[in-house]
Amino acid sequence: MVTEQKAPRRRAGRPRIGQPHAIDVHVGSRVRLRRTLLGMSQEKLGDALGLTFQQVQKYERGANRIGASRLYELGRVLDVPVSFFFDDAPVANDTGMDARGSGDQMAPTGLDPMAKRETLELVRAYYRITDPAVRRRLFELTKSLAHSFEIDVPSEH
After folding, report:
1. Residue among 153, 7, 23, 17 nearest 90 (CA)
2. How far does Cα 53 stand from its chain's mean position?
3. Is 157 within the bounds of a domain?
4. Which residue of 64, 68, 84, 89 shows the fewest CB atoms closer than 10 Å?
């Protein structure tokens, strides 16, 4: 008598291809965003959580998932509600695609200017300016400079 072997059932969750799940990457990028805005090092955050800076790095890359209790502690240490870590998260289904069936929202955050260290440092420096009038003038100057560098694209009509 020949017995058939069933293929092992796949558990829901992280894909097996070695890529971190898009939500884990997003949550990690939000941890990095908040930590950087506070001017906190990975080592200092790790100390506050009882972790090594390498563990913090893995969380920020999305390589390690962040459990519920750890997420709660991160929110406490970084002074944000847990929901902060999911703001603007991609809407994913179990295929790794967004709800519309395209992978657009699953793209890595490398193109997001808010994920760049330069942007975060600029924002931190901007808010260290205590005089609201000076801050407003700097804001207007920055907008003016950005506008002056825009390239006029001729209309195809």
Report:
1. 23
2. 18
3. no
4. 68
SS3 assignment, position 92: strand
Asked if 84 contacts 31 with a C-beta cutoff of 8 angstroms, the reply is no
Per the structure, the count of domains in the chain is: 2
In a domain, 14, yes or no: no
The tally of CA atoms less than 13 A away on the side-chain side of residue 70 is: 16
Quote the tokens at residue 42.
């990975």
Q: What is the pLDDT of residues 23-75, one digit of tens each?
A: 999 999 999 989 988 889 999 999 999 999 999 999 999 999 999 999 999 99
56-60 own/partner pairs: CB under 8 Å, 24+ apart: 56/31, 59/28, 59/31, 60/28, 60/29, 60/31, 60/32, 60/35
Query: The pTM is what?
Result: 0.60
90 and 138 inside one domain? no
- Within a domain: residue 94? yes
